[in-house]
Every structure is written in C-alpha cells, then in structure tokens.
Amino acid sequence: MRDIRQTPQYTKYLSLIGWKVERIHDTNYFIKKFPIIGSVLKVQRPEKLHLHDIYHVSRANQCFQIIIEPNLSTDHLRLASSGFKSSNSPYLPTKTLQLDLTKSENQLLKEMKKDARYALRRTMNFILCTVDCDDFRHAWKKAVGWKRYVPPLSHLIALEKSFKDNCVFLGCFDESIHRSGIIGGAIFLIGDKTVYYWQAFTNEEGRKALAQYKIVWEGILWAKETDAKVFDFEGIYDERFPNKSWLGFTHFKKSFGGYEVSYPGCFVKNLLSFSQ
User: Which CATH entry fits the domain spanning 103-228: 2.40.10.220, 3.40.50.150, 3.40.630.30, 3.10.20.30?
Assistant: First the structure.
C-alpha cells in the first residue's frame, strides 16, 4: 500500500496550499520555492527511489536542498553512499503505530489496554459527529491557544476539498453539559486502504473527561466502514530521534494495541551546484 503522501489526493492538497508537484514514475516530487535562494525538493515515502529523476527535478527547479524520507521498501543505505546525510530533525514521524482493521470490533476492543476500555465506558454517552472546517478550527484554536500550531482555515478547506469522502472532521460533544461546544476533535484521512489519525485536539474539559479515547475509537469504527485495511496513528515516540514531548500521546496511542512500524529517517543533501 502506498503512503498517503504518494496519493493523488495528497498531491492535490499540497498543490492547493502553494507547493509545486511533479509526478514521475509513480513518485510525487514536492517543490517549495523561496525568494532569491531557490527551491527545496521533498521526496516523501516513495515506493521506489529514482535518484536520476530526483536530480533531474532538482536541476530543473534550481533546488539548493533535497530532502528524502524513505519508505520501508527504499534502500536508504544507497542514499548515504550518494552523499545524503541523516538528519536529526525528520519532517515525518519515523515510527508509528498501526492497527489491523481486518480484525473484528470485539477483537480490537479485547486487545486494548484496560485504561482505554475504561475510558470508552466512561465516555459512551459522548456525541461524535462531523463538523465543518470553520467550526473545527475555531474549537481547535480555542483549545490550544498559542501553545500549538493550528493550520489556517484555507489549509483545512484544501484538505477537505482534496480528499472529499476520504476525509472526515469529527467533533466531540458531551451531552451531560448544558451548553454547546466541541470539547475535542480529530481529522481522519484515507490513503490507499490506510486510514490516518491525521491531527487532533482536546480542550481542558475534554482531557479531564477522557474524550480523546472516544474520538479515536469512533475514527477506528469509521475506518472499518470503509475498505481500509490499516489504521495508522501517524507517529509515536522514537528512541532514535528522542522528543520527550511525544511520550504522553505515545502512551495514549499504545493503549489501543497494534504493532509498531519504524522508518529509516530523513536524509538531506545540500547542493552547491546543479551539475550532478
């Protein structure tokens, strides 16, 4: 199965938010142009590594830097021998957690940790429904303030426009509280039979109520209604590239069970000339 960043939907999304995209031999090449200094080329999770095509695209777009984040099938040792350096600051998660969606709902529940099952029982009366981008972003921004980056509304609209039925914005409401308002939410995307837990938030009220467990579980149930085979949590803590701020949500994600998948990391080459 292709990574979501190699799908036509993701290509359209990046094009709408200002990236140039070229597709050669079933691989997406993402180019970002900067005034005066030139462009950066990103190749993210390609099924096959075509260095000749990479250098061709870099020359044509006057790229001063190439960033490659290999897929599992990519020979990353070949990158090292071609002058690419391993980066300590990957752009994509280098380790993730996945669930096998071919398992039954009961089996998935059984494989959860006790605290996750407890949280689902506690939040069984919470209401989950689709919400529009504007309401979703407003609640997200209100929940996190300046502590976390929240994409502009135009990016969320572009995401929904690009993925269409393969995208859902879920909002969580607590019916026991006598006021309306989203206490948490998540964006789930489908890319080539894999559903991604793309971005999520909960406000203080939602965190205290353990709403995040209900949100993810509803996303898993939505994923099972599609023809997806895998649910991807889109990133957990990786000891190779330690970021302690990831430990908390990694513990949360692992409470759903699943299996870990590790990627080679990020490789960068700075170009002093375009004569490769």
Answer: 3.40.630.30
CATH architecture of 4-91+265-270: 3-Layer(aba) Sandwich (3.40)
Q: Give the pLDDT score at 263.
A: 95
pLDDT averaged over the chain? 93
43 DSSP β-pair partners: 68
What are the DSSP calls for 160-194, one per residue? HHHHGGGEEEEEEE-TTSSS----EEEEEEEETTE
Residue with tokens 């993925």: 163
Read off the pLDDT of each residue in 107-130 and give the average, rounded to a whole number.
96
Structure tokens at 246: 């990831």
Reported as a pLDDT band with limits 50, 70 and 90, residue 1 is confident
